[in-house]
Amino acid sequence: MANTQIAAARSGTITEEMERVAKRENRDPAFVRQQIADGQAVIPANRHHDALDPMIIGREFATKVNANIGNSETTSDLETELEKLHTAVHYGADTVMDLGTGSDLDAIREAHVDHSPVPIGTVPLYEAVKQAGSPEAITTDLLLEIIEKQAEQGVDYMTVHAGVLAEHLPLTDGRKTGIVSRGGSIVARWLEEHGEQNPLFQIYDEICEVFAEHDVTFSLGDSLRPGCLADACDEAQYAELDTLGELTRRAWEYDVQVLVEGPGHVPMDRIAENVRRQQDVCDGAPFYVLGPLVTDVAPGYDHITSAIGAAIAAQAGAAMLCYVTPKEHLGLPDDEDVRDGLAAYRIAAHAGDVANGLPGARDWDDALSEARYEFDWREQFSLALDPDRAREYHDQTLPEDNYKEARFCSMCGVEFCSMRIDQDARADGEMAQLAATTDLESSPAAEVNLPPVGTHDAERSTGRDVDE
C-alpha cells in the first residue's frame, strides 16, 4: 500500500501532518483523518518537502488561497523568484504555484521547496514544452521523466491536464475565446498533430504510481475552462469535468489525493451551479477555482471582478481560490500586484467562511468592529488584513501621533462622526453603553481566520536574512 496521507487515513492512522492541520484548523484530528480518508480534503505534503508547515484544503475547513508566481524568458533569476515567494507568503498565500517558463527552472524549483513553508505546486507540462522545443515534440516518456523529477524535488501538488480528450476538441468550435488554458492549448496542439489520445491520459496510471511513491497531490487541470462569460457552462467544459470525475476515482484507487480545478469566467448566477456540479461529478473532491471572473469588461481590475466570483464560489463550497491580480490578461504581475491580488482573495475566502458559519470565523470581524467603535486606531491597524495599508491610508491625512487617540478620522471630521455622536449620547445616559466582548485568543476560528495574515518566518521563505 502507498505511504500517502490518504492511505494512512484509510488505515485509521492519524499522521503528524493531520495532527498539525487539526491544530491550525481547531478541529478534532479524527475528523481531519476521516475527511482525508473520504477524499473530501487533501493535505499536499510531499515527503521530500522538509520546510513545509502542513495545511489542509477541503470544503469543511477554512477556505484557502493560492498565489501563482514564476519566471519567464525576460525575467529569470533565483533571487527575484525567492522574493516573489516571500511576498506571496507574507501577504497570506496558503499555497504557491511556480508557473515558471524561463531558465534555471530546476534550481528555482528546488530553492522554493527548500525555503517554502507552504505547499508548492507546478505544471510539469510547461517544462515538457520547454525541453521538447514545441508542443507537438512532447513524448510520454519525457512527460513521465519530468513528473518523476519534480516529485523527487519535493513538489507537493501538480496540475495535470489529463482530462481533455480528443473527442472534446470539436465541442470548442463555437466558442468566442476557444481554449484559454495554457496547458489545454498545448495538449490540443499535440492532439491535432498526432491524431492520438491525450498523452497525459495515456500514462495516467504511471503518473498515479509516481504520485503515490512521493505523496504528490493531483490538481486535475480544467483545460477547457471558459475564457469569457459567453463560453461558461458549455458542453466542452462539462464534458471535460465528467472525465475529471473518472480520473479522480482512478487516482483514489492508487491512494493518491486529488484536487479538481475549475473555471474561469462565469456569470454570478451560475457559479453555485458549477460548484454543485463538480462536487457531484467528482464525489466531493476539493474544488480549486480560478476566480471566477463575473464580468469581462474590466481589464486592470480583474482582481475585483474575480474576487466577487471567488467569494460566491467559497460560499457555495469551493475549497481553494486561485488569486487573480490586477495585471490578469495584461502583463506579468509585480510585488504590488501580488499584494493587491492576495488582499482581494483573502477577503473573498474570509467572507465565504463567515457566510458558511465556520467556527469563530466572524470573531475577527467583531474584534475589529469593537476597536473601530472605541477609536482604538492602533488596534484597528493591528487587526487589519493589511495593517500597513490601513495605517498608510489613515496617516495620509492625519499622520501625527495625537490623531491615534482622536475620536474621528478625516472622512467625517469631528462634528459629523456618527460613532462619536453615538458614544456621547450613550455617555449622557440616553442609551445603554456598549462594551467590547470578543476575545480572539479564545476564538475557535481556524488559523487563517485570525490575524495576523502572513505569519510565516520571512527568513524561511526567502532563504536569507530579511535584514540584509
From TrEMBL:
Parts forming coiled coils: none
Binding site for Zn(2+): H265, H329
MF annotations from Gene Ontology: 4 iron, 4 sulfur cluster binding; phosphomethylpyrimidine synthase activity; zinc ion binding
Region feature Disordered, mapped onto this chain: 437-468
Signal sequence, start to end: none
Domain of life the protein comes from: Archaea
EC primary class: lyase
Biological processes per GO annotation: thiamine biosynthetic process; thiamine diphosphate biosynthetic process
Cofactor dependence: [4Fe-4S] cluster
Reaction equations catalysed: 5-amino-1-(5-phospho-beta-D-ribosyl)imidazole + S-adenosyl-L-methionine = 4-amino-2-methyl-5-(phosphooxymethyl)pyrimidine + CO + 5'-deoxyadenosine + formate + L-methionine + 3 H(+)
EC number, UniProt record: 4.1.99.17
Pathway: Cofactor biosynthesis; thiamine diphosphate biosynthesis
Cofactor, how bound (note): Binds 1 [4Fe-4S] cluster per subunit. The cluster is coordinated with 3 cysteines and an exchangeable S-adenosyl-L-methionine.
Metal-binding keyword on record: yes
Annotated binding of [4Fe-4S] cluster, by residue: C409, C412, C417
Biased composition (Basic and acidic residues): 456-468
Binding site for substrate: N68, M97, Y126, H161, S181, R182, G183, D222, S223, L224, R225, E261, Y288
Family of this protein: Belongs to the ThiC family.
Purpose: Catalyzes the synthesis of the hydroxymethylpyrimidine phosphate (HMP-P) moiety of thiamine from aminoimidazole ribotide (AIR) in a radical S-adenosyl-L-methionine (SAM)-dependent reaction.
HAMAP family registered for this protein in UniProt: ThiC
Name the record gives this protein: Phosphomethylpyrimidine synthase
Organism (species): Natronobacterium gregoryi (strain ATCC 43098 / DSM 3393 / CCM 3738 / CIP 104747 / IAM 13177 / JCM 8860 / NBRC 102187 / NCIMB 2189 / SP2)
Origin organism lineage: Archaea, Methanobacteriati, Methanobacteriota, Stenosarchaea group, Halobacteria
